[in-house]
Amino acid sequence: MQQKQALTLRDVAVGSSARVVKLTGEGAVKRHVMDMGITKGVEIYVRKVAPLGDPIEVSVRGYELSLRKSEAENVLVEAVS
Hints:
6 strands; Ferrous iron transporter FeoA-like domain-containing protein; globular; SH3 type barrels; FeoA; FeoA_core_dom; Transcriptional_repressor_C
């Protein structure tokens, strides 16, 4: 069986959805991401990425949120078919 390569939320293309597999990082950054409702199993839709890649605008549980690149790198995801 072939194992999928881990992607971060930062790697997801604009207009695509992904499902959260794991949150990495620690302390305030991880807590901030979790406070936004981004937890394991949640589906995230990437709406827009600023020209320099910061911030990344996403839709989660019906809410429109902005994440910094550093926060998006701590969210491991898998593509949604």
